[in-house]
Fold each of these.
Amino acid sequence: MKQNKGGILKSSRGYLFRITVEGKQKSVGGWQRTRKEAVAVQKNFLEGREKSGVDSFDVYSTALVRSAKDAFNILQEAGIDDPRHLVDATRLYLKQSPVGQTKMTFNEAFDKMEDCDRFEELSDKHKDAYRRYARYLAEQVPNGWKTPLNEITTDHILATKDACSKTSRNEAFKCQKHLSYIFDAFFKNELRLVEITPFDRIPAVRKPKDIEKKELYTPEEAFRIFAYAVNAEQKRPWRPLGLFIKAYTGMHSEELANITFDMFGKSGEIRFEESDAFEINIPAEYMKSRQLHSYPIPVVLRKLLMSSPWFLKHFNSIDPKNFLMGIKVKSQFKDRKLWGYTSRKVSDWMKDWCSSCDVEWRGNLFRHMVASYGYKELWNENLSKTQEAIGHSIGTDTTFKHYKSKVTGASAKKYYNPDNFTEAFMNVWSSMEGEEVYRPDKHEFDTVKIKYVDKVRKELNNTLAFGVGERLMIGSKTGKKATKKTKKAKSKLLFGMGL
């Protein structure tokens, strides 16, 4: 490589040696009276640079010099001042480095993995899973746990996976997933025990989906769950309300856990005459896709929201003289979470509700139900509109291709028809006002007595006009009268959803 010798600059001040280092002009030795003195400075500098070997680093010079400086700083912090110890430390590292220990056994490598900080931070559930699948692999290699790490091949991995596949496809998937993480994340990247892994030649696989186990809930079953939830949670109306939002928007549980009252409509303001006002706007940081998304509020969900005194107590009328103009969130509730529970709570409660009302628990499938039923009833079998509404990647055919063939137009219409909520159901739902407001962020209740305006209730009791000319019937009997009637109609509420 041609050496960079720099040059001598002449001016009225004298002679100056300058050289380009890492793309920048550098002056060395200051101004000299004669050219001979400047050349001497140049000679001394270049000789020192040649001895350091910096010019032999080629394009990697900057990174290598910086790394060497960083390494020496680490030694200095440890009390070692002699630069020669940097060389000694490098030689010692190469001798002790696991990369050079070609005979390190699988057992020794796994012990190192269990001792590292990254493994310690895992939950007990994940630790047990890694140990279990490592044990399965040890059963497939020639010398078990004593097999050298570099002798474990792709064939051994595939044999372990095949053994797990005899249990189920899902077990085979989890086997490959966990073993891949052991070798790539721990042995290769975290501990640097190997430079290549047996998984370099195995393509990644997607989790298999057993479609037959994911039969959608029928509209009758869904309404049965709704009815039981309303009856069982009369003192906690936000629980069934969260269920309704999920059931009719297809919202992810993680997104539901973070919605606040000011996300309804346009910054917490819903003008009934504006067709695009009925939506829930989720910021990008809460979305699974990490993109801002607006979930449309269908008519059936509007009815449930606008007949919930607990929901409406967080809002004021936009115009006190005309409540039917719209509502806006009260200032003290703008950042208040409506739900705030962890994502698993919906599933946990649904299991209990299903068990209590004799509906087979088949999983939290409401997102699939919105995609399937909404595809038929709301979006005229338009795939892109359906995907846009539920926040799914547009252009793929994976959203609900396994379900739409099983959904009939009649069942979709029934699921989204607000008239299928009986009078008994609406009487209970429209009486669930309560005085306590849940504070999910503090995991406690605030006893907030918010007087519900009789005039507002009176106007909402009969009809509520929307921009597209729809008129939704709201439960008209509330308070003590509704409670008495509800007790008499309890069985009708649970089993007579008008279906």
Amino acid sequence: MNDMIIVLKEQLKNLGMIFRVSKYEERATYQSHYLGILWEVLNPIIQVGIYYLIFGLGFYGGRQVEGAPFIVWMMIGLSVWLFMNSAILGTSNSIFQKMYLISKMNFPVSVLPSINIASNLTAFFAMFGVTIVVALSQNVIITFKWIQFVYFFICMIAFLFSLGIFSATMTVLIRDYHMILQSIVRVLLYLSGVIWNIKDANFPVLFKAILELNPIFYIIDGFRAALLSGDWFWVDYQHLIFFWAITLLTFFVGAHLHVKFRARFVDLS
């Protein structure tokens, strides 16, 4: 518990620095590109187009999913997934890639995963904004349930940071961890309900129940429920409790490992 408090205090104390550095890294990424930061929107839109051609027109044949146009349903899932995918892999490598700074500068290493998450936020909000425009053009109605976006956004950031502090530490301790994580994330695209509906899938009940325990599925399904007038988040209290239990457990283990080994990161790299 003390390790969790230490790591959280470091985030709050350095919140300003986290956002300043994330903006610098964001600009540096696209500095040599003619279209610059526009690529943060263009890249996901191109991916949405490809997935829609394959799944929307091919697999689903233009049908609705959970009472919503497939393009809207899919764009909500992909907006969340593309952000989480980038953040999961980015936070995992965030400490190892900045090892040269750790040896030269005095700053809390635990903020590096947070910087990576923050640097991806512009792309997420831009893509989600495009998704909302498309949703409104497809006659999706704005309701008071849209306020649940705030709750599921908090869920997403909490999970990404918890997993990020764990993964970033593990990547330094075991270099193969990042490669294993990359493979797992590729599979999770198809096991998290991003581009096809797990709820309607012709799976055994037990297998479907296991898939729905996936924290990424909980977040994606939650954003869809919020924007497409599904149930309030507290109705499915079993998955709510399980999600936060997994998130807190991951943070507990990650914070403990991080505080225990960070003084030796330079030697271990």
Amino acid sequence: MVQAAHDNYTSDPKLFEKLLEDADKPLYPDCKKFTKLSSLVKLYNLKGRYGWSDKSFSELLGLLGEMLPDNNEMPSSMYEAKKTLTALGMEYEKIHACPKDCILYRKEYKDAIACLTCGTSRWKGKYKRNCLL
């Protein structure tokens, strides 16, 4: 992660300047507790911790932007947020897990279609009342 951020800054020094600016810019005029960058990092941490989809995160950002005072710096979508977060090296890789938490589907298990420990399918079925959707 650190190397990715370093590579971004050396190839585009203006990116680093933008991050410093976002780190100092209040989330909204006269806001003392949060900056644009600090609020975005905290929200992104919650997104990862609780498994929010990109779509739900975009909707949350849009709603927060409407709730905050005018002239706020809250990104309006996940796309806008990713532009800032990618510069920090905060990209993520989604890793599937067995529904019973036996294994993670990575490394030697990345292509498995069922858990090698309990046999549970990796994929959720789309069944409803004995009919395949």
